[in-house]
Amino acid sequence: MTTRATRSPRRRTVVALAVVLAVLGAFVVRLVDIQVVRADEHVEESRKTGNLGSTQPVAGNRGDIVDENGTVLASSKLVYDAQLDPWLITELEKKDKAPMPWAKASTRIADITGLDADELRSEVAANLADNSDSRYYQLKKKGLSTDQYLDLKELELPYLALKSRAVRVYPNGAVGGNLVGFVNSNGDGYGIEKLQAQCLAPRNGERTYLRGKNGVIVPGSDRETPAVDGGTVKLTIDSDLEWYLSQMIAEEAKIKGAKSATATVVEVKTGKIRAAAQYPALDPNDIDGTHPDYWRSQIFSHTYEPGSTFKPITAATLLEEGAATPLSVVSAKGRERFPNGANIGDSFGHPEYDYTLAGALIDSSNVALSKFGSKVAPEVRYDYLKKFGVGTPTAVGFPDEESGGVRDPRKKPWDNQTYYTTTFGQAFTVTPIQVASAYQTIANGGEHIDLSLVESCTDREGVEHTTEVTKKRVVSEDTAAQVRRMLENVAVQGGLADTVEVPGYRIGTKTGTAQVSDGKGHYKSGAYYTSILGVAPIEDPQYVVMITMEEPTRITSSAATAPALQKALTQVLKTYRVAPSSTPMEAPLPKFGE
């Protein structure tokens, strides 16, 4: 039997429950209105006022640069920046709320980062002395390793902030450094880092989330679009060969007292640059260790008058135009005054010789080449200089590449001296890589192939894009073959024959000793830019090797570069396992006419 006494508490319970359910229902209705019905409206309003939405970038890593075999030449790694909040350190110390006393914390921090604890405390104190409200003190300027970051994080110090960033590292240092280049503090690239910036660039992601008024992230609102690392740039160079040539050319430059030197290797049948070493060399990890004048790749940026290395180009012009053969003859003294008043002299005194064209190259006679070269009109000679690449940057497109140049006689006639000096490599300028390119054309049967330094770019999506090259015929195969034969005679009969000989291989060579401009329209006294090129094996050319030295002081002639060429050719042929020559040299060409 239910009594009034028992019904009353039950009624009160039911009423209370109904009230609770009503209130809860109102909250649910309101919550549905806010989070479902009008959710977009509220989120948009909060985002506009900056009270709810937050977005943080997620950085991707810049891509790698590798050599032809996949050896990493440049990559990115994470380092961590650490900063202290001096004001907060003081406040926590005053209120005795720090996780550990500053004296102990500073010692732990110093031990982890390799700093001096006393200096750290002193510098933080000085920071506060300058500004008692200071909220920033950079702990270490060159970044912390991952291990240091983790050790510092374990300290759980509220006044210690840690932030990651990517930095470029160059595992091989100065090996290929002038080609690879570097990225400066502003993110601007030099060398391949600049040339291939688009391929190497990552695609950054982002993290978005919603926050409440107290800054707490709203559960379930955290979304992240992952970053995508940059692509991989594969170069044509062989880093092992590059290392050898870097060591060798530095040693040779120092022995000869040269300001700078380069060693370049071009693969004849592909136009690929297999090495481009220089001294002084740039270590991208320490750019301040090299004078800024030598940050750039000298083979692309240094312009000079090529001198006698361009005499074979004059010979090719004569042969192609039918104006001479290797056995054509001119009479030439050691120095002559030409009918137009020009004075031309050889590097050594001699009586009048009846030089063959082959002999003029063997003895490198300026006077004889002047007489041979004048058999072709200046306009035609100019056209061939242009065909062989003078005044045009290579297809590599290397940053800050110079073009050199030669004046068009159609626009302004060559003066009396220039009329002749252009036949032996003066009165126009080139870069070392342009000379190597011209010899690639001769070595490749008269067909020019665009030089390349980048093999491919494998982009962020994993798609490989290879470098496309073009070919063009410059001179006939017969002309190129005759020039190569004369180059072999230079190697065998020239004054440096014993020095440049590579046992087991037939080679072709040509030297150049160019006067150096003083920048004021004159030449420096006793200063020369010396160079030498080698083609091997000459009967089936595989590689062109070029050595240059800027103003050597102990040997000022092109003999300064000969030992380096011999060493470089030997190493190149060994590196690429080129078979020794199996056929003998043809009968030597005569230096003098009958």
TrEMBL record:
Protein family according to the UniProt entry: Belongs to the transpeptidase family.
Protein name according to UniProt: Penicillin-binding protein 2
Region Disordered: start-end pairs: 43-63
Signal peptide span: none
Localisation per UniProt entry: Membrane
Any one GO BP annotation for this protein: cell wall organization
Entry GO terms, CC: plasma membrane
